[in-house]
Amino acid sequence: MKSTIVTAKPGKKIRLSKIDPAATGGIKKDAALARAAEVREKISVLQEALYAEHQRSVLVVLQAMDTGGKDGSVKNLCTGVNPAGLKITSFKPPSLEERDHDFLWRAHNAAPGKGMIGIWNRSHYEEVLVVRVHKLVPKKIWKERYEQINRFEKHLSQTGTTLVKVMLHISKDEQKERLQARLDDPNKRWKFNPGDLKEREFWDEYQKVYEDAINRCNTDWAPWHVVPANHKWSRDLAIVDLVYRVLKQMNPVYPKLSFDPKTVVIDG
Amino acid sequence: MKSTIVTAKPGKKIRLSKIDPAATGGIKKDAALARAAEVREKISVLQEALYAEHQRSVLVVLQAMDTGGKDGSVKNLCTGVNPAGLKITSFKPPSLEERDHDFLWRAHNAAPGKGMIGIWNRSHYEEVLVVRVHKLVPKKIWKERYEQINRFEKHLSQTGTTLVKVMLHISKDEQKERLQARLDDPNKRWKFNPGDLKEREFWDEYQKVYEDAINRCNTDWAPWHVVPANHKWSRDLAIVDLVYRVLKQMNPVYPKLSFDPKTVVIDG
How does pLDDT run across B130-154, given as a tens digit for each residue? Predict the structure, then answer.
């Protein structure tokens, strides 16, 4: 099986329109589900070691258009792993207190501690995405943010956090189908926000600012990965595979014991 | 199947020594695992509605002796539910900042928001458990805490949070086996803390302060449930069943829509 993920390379620009959101890498659904289950078991073993080692962290950043599959991807990543080692953060519109600080303040606060895997549903990138599309701050401000984000991520990286930045890439048609599905299912209707239709009108602008974010914040220490996400099962497999490869590369080890287990006697 | 859970009733004292930690309610392991899987699916459906309703919360408080199964119970409760609707908190020894506040400050801060299920691995009860056993504060102080805890829980309850307080009840022999198992398994050894043996010497004192906490903080608005926990599969079934019954009783409903789904048209 060929990975569907397009990982941005520093100095080489990504064009979202050149990446097929329906790509599956030639694998069928059943095979993908079975394989994802296997990969999850391997992640679970490595996560246990990461948690025990208690030295480093992983931070998975999930960004996508509305209905792009952020919630589903969080659920996918959490399946089968130890919840004690997860720190999940959903970035909502900033609170009054958060707006009283610089835009990276709340992001830093949400960073995973030692031994933890952090999963961000949206992130500090909203500050160069929705903020740009709707002109919420002047160009002078948002232009500087890319470099500020790169510095922030360099700091996280240097202090022990491996960043895995994922853009879930769906097509405009797929979004239409998913919005319609929300309307049609009585148990999903509450998720439908008429405002999403307004956002949908800005589809092209969003694609452009996503490309900018990916290309300007695509660093050696925190590369971006574009995951074709029209097919949920393909997307899920791609993401667990990506996280598995990251964990394997980190190679976490159980800590040395401060005692000899053979000499320990447990009294009645 | 008969529930193994002993739910404390206000005015009637619980004696832990009268509750069999090995009770299974007459169900066999395979049947219990199958049934727990079914109950989890029902929890998942109700959790979705609780999250959508966005009005009330559930707070599951887990307390137990060392190796009593708190971590396993968190994992059990998280299996199959939407992680976006969970807020998990592990209470560690308080930080300097936390110690600069009253003992309920950090507990309140960790309370689940609307629509969420909070799961606490340890809790504010440590302040009348380990704190009493090791005489970390004078009697004058800890004596007042039961009433303070009751008031705090009454407030949470009145403002929309359903409390589910669970004491995982294991035997001293079972603890011995579990500590030994940690020592014997190279991948579990890191969890073994020689200090746990010191705590084990205080077994009887701990049982006594647990009884006190259960009996003094056993209110109409926040009852305690003692779950026999020697058998993990029986414990897991008992807990999901308890949480399921609580959610069913709450009967969360999907919010009314502010629009008519039939009139919505999604443009190309």
Answer: 999 999 999 999 999 999 999 999 9
Nearest chain B residue to A80, by CA? B79
pLDDT digits (tens, 9 = 90+) for A63-93: 999 999 999 999 999 998 999 999 999 999 9
A chain contacts of residue B52, beta-carbon cutoff 8 Å: 190-191
Helix/strand/coil (H/E/C) assignment for every residue in B196-239: HHHHHCCHHHHHHHHHHHHHHCCCCCCCEEEEECCCHHHHHHHH
**Nearest CB to A88 within list B48, B83, B187:** B83
Tell me the DSSP string of chain A.
-----EE-BTTB---GGGS-TT--TT--HHHHHHHHHHHHHHHHHHHHHHHHH-S-EEEEEEEESTTSSHHHHHHHHHTTS-GGGEEEEE--SPPHHHHTS-TTHHHHHT---TT-EEEEES-GGGGGTHHHHTT-S-HHHHHHHHHHHHHHHHHHHHTTEEEEEEEEE--HHHHHHHHHHHHH-TTTGGG--THHHHHHTTHHHHHHHHHHHHHHT--SSS-EEEEE-SSHHHHHHHHHHHHHHHHHHH---PPPPSS-GGG-----
The interface pTM score, or ipTM, of the predicted complex is: 0.85
Nearest CA in chain B to A173: B268
Residue of A nearest to B253 (CA): A187
Min distance A75 CA to chain B CA atoms (Å) = 6
pTM for the model stands at 0.91
